[in-house]
Specification:
Blueprint (H helix, E strand, L loop, with lengths): L1 E2 L6 E2 L12 H17 L6 E4 L3 H15 L10 E5 L2 E7 L1 H14 L1 E4 L7 E3 L1 H12 L12 H4 L9 H5 L4 H10 L11 H17 L23 H13 L1 E5 L2 E3 L2 H22 L13 H12 L9 H14 L16 H13 L4 H5 L6 H4 L9 H15 L9 H7 L9 H6 L14 H21 L5 H12 L11 H29 L12 H15 L1
Parallel strand pairs: 3-5
Antiparallel strand pairs: 1-2, 4-5, 6-7, 6-8, 8-9
Helix pairs in contact: 1-2, 3-10, 7-8, 9-10, 13-21, 19-20, 19-21, 20-21, 21-22
């Protein structure tokens, strides 16, 4: 498959069938033929991309020797070969490199030597401990994306890139760092090394995964590479860091191919930028240089005919032609991994589950509610993980308020410059280059008020959210049980209270529905005692029954 650099287009060219690994010399011959035909068609081939398979590495080394000379050093910092005197840079697929680091970290300890400082160590057990602490908190977790399929070595879907990327993330790195400050109930101080390693590889992956011209959400690395962007300076530091990393196996030091190939890929991207500038391009999107289009294309072939995960030779030929003519005229594959999530489908599936077996009258009947039904006793004291999660969620809700941008009184009522433990997660997740701060630091009174809202909604959502007028009942229950205390009265306070309650109720309902869906699909295997949530219990039983089949 070939792919455009300036414009996002892709074109499958050919396929071969083999009963085993293709011989290096045969694979090299195919590559040369394809490149020459593309050159004859007027295309300028700048780079090639592959995973770290033994065959792929062997053929690139063979092409380097045969086209550049027998004296070429295979372990050179940049891998390239020439066809018709045109230089072609080879890099490795960044998602595969990230998975390679994750797979090594599952089994071995990573050591990171830093000049004039104590070496840092990272190990997978720190991530598992952090997940255990987080999953015992409320449903508004600090690391909501992590599941057993991300952290349990026996359940990890190792081919899934998201399972690696969501662990090597800014959020997980921030939370791990905070958990080292809890004390005996948290992580050991050595876990700060794991936090820093996760943060480094998160930034590294972002720097080679940008597809927009300008940075979004103050993430200055996940965008196009230009002379003024921070990529080139970061890559220089990243290469030094990679050279100072190694894994320990049985007390012995070893450097896996993933670490070496990250450095080769960064060098290759810099060389590609130089070549592109010589052709008049002032920027490029690094996400262009990966295997996503090819992976998505194979995924589409497997989806033909409902679900054909292992097509025959004949089926593959037919599906290849079908896809070639039907949906490869667009830049975005219809069933690509990055397809926009449709929230309505999630809520619909939950509604279908909780209404199965109910008559039409049962589903639409009005609920008889009294003030006594909706009054909730105060909730238990929050743990540290619950507090920092609630502080972050409160900031997320307040950030959507427009009045806070124009009214000084509103801003004083809702936000503060004095930070405490409620704000620890917000501080940790704030990008250092964000001036002014882009995240919101809510007042303790507001966070405590929303915490009370959460306790009320946690009790009543399973009882009313799927009923007619359930949303209004939940909002009214919050108004009855929670009194927001603000220092200064403002003409906007009435509207702001209504907005906060409405938005927070929506968020909790959506989060609860998503949680039920995770239970139904087996993605949430936490052993939680939810005796007050009949739907959660039913969903758990439903999954266990189907799993046995």
């Amino acid at each position: 498959m070939i792919k455009g650099i300036k414009r996002e287009w892709k074109q499958p060219l050919l396929y071969t069938f083999s009963s085993g690994p293709v011989k290096t010399i045969d694979l090299a011959r195919i590559i040369k033929q394809v490149v020459k035909q593309c050159q004859d068609a007027g295309l300028k081939i700048i780079a090639s991309v592959s995973d770290q398979g033994t065959n792929n590495q062997a053929v690139i080394n063979y092409l380097m020797k045969s086209s550049i000379g027998t004296n070429v050093q295979i372990g050179d910092k940049i891998k390239f070969f020439k066809i018709n005197e045109q230089k072609i840079i080879h890099i490795y697929d960044p998602p595969h490199l990230l998975k390679g680091i994750r797979n090594n970290l599952l089994k071995y300890k990573l050591i990171w030597k830093i000049q004039d400082k104590e070496p840092l160590s990272a190990q997978w057990s720190d991530i598992q401990k952090a997940y255990q602490l987080d999953k015992c908190s409320t449903d508004l977790r600090a690391m909501p994306k992590l599941t057993e399929g991300h952290v349990n070595p026996k359940k990890i879907r190792k081919m899934k890139v998201s399972c690696a990327a969501q662990v090597f993330s800014h959020t997980v790195a921030s939370v791990l760092g905070l958990m080292t400050k809890i004390g005996d109930s948290g992580l050991d101080e050595e876990a700060i090394g794991t936090s820093k390693v996760l943060s480094f590889f998160n930034k590294l992956f972002d720097s080679v995964n940008g597809r927009v011209l300008k940075p979004m959400k103050r993430n200055f690395l996940r965008c196009a590479v230009t002379e003024r962007s921070k990529h080139l300076k970061f890559w220089q530091c990243a290469r030094n860091n990679l050279r100072n990393m190694h894994f320990e196996k049985g007390g012995k030091k070893f450097i896996p191919p993933s670490l070496k190939n990250w450095e080769i890929t960064l060098n290759g991207l810099e060389e590609i930028f130089k070549i592109l500038k010589s052709h008049g391009l002032t920027f490029f999107k690094p996400r262009v240089f990966n295997q996503d289009p090819l992976e998505n294309f194979f995924g589409q072939i497997r989806q033909q005919g409902a679900r054909n995960t292992n097509p025959t030779v004949t089926q593959f030929k037919i599906h290849f032609k079908t896809l070639l003519f039907n949906n490869l005229t667009t830049t975005h594959s219809i069933s690509a991994n990055c397809e926009i999530d449709n929230s309505e489908e999630i809520l619909t599936s939950v509604r279908q589950f909780i209404t199965q077996g109910l008559s039409e009258d049962d589903e639409t009947e009005e609920i008889e509610t009294t003030d006594e039904n909706l009054l909730i006793s105060p909730g238990p004291e929050f743990s540290y993980i619950d507090k920092i999660s609630m502080g972050y969620v409160s900031g997320f809700v307040v950030k959507q308020l427009k009045a806070i941008e124009t009214c000084i009184k509103c801003e004083k009522n809702l936000t503060t410059v004095n930070k405490n433990e409620w704000h620890d997660l917000v501080v940790a997740k704030e990008f250092k280059d964000s001036v002014p701060n882009k995240l919101k630091y809510c007042t303790p009174k507001l966070i405590i008020g929303l915490s009370s809202c959460y306790h009320v909604l946690q009790k009543l959502t399973p009882k009313y959210c799927f009923k007619k007028s359930g949303y209004e009942i939940l909002k009214n229950s919050v108004k009855m049980n929670v009194n927001f205390e603000f220092n200064d009265n403002c003409e906007h306070m009435g509207d702001i209270k209504e907005f906060l309650i409405s938005k927070f109720t929506e968020l909790v309902c959506y989060n609860w529905a998503g949680g039920i869906n995770k239970v139904l699909s087996g993605k949430d295997e936490r052993n939680r005692h939810r005796n007050d949530d009949a739907i959660y219990i039913a969903a758990k039983k439903y999954y266990e029954k189907r799993k046995k089949k």
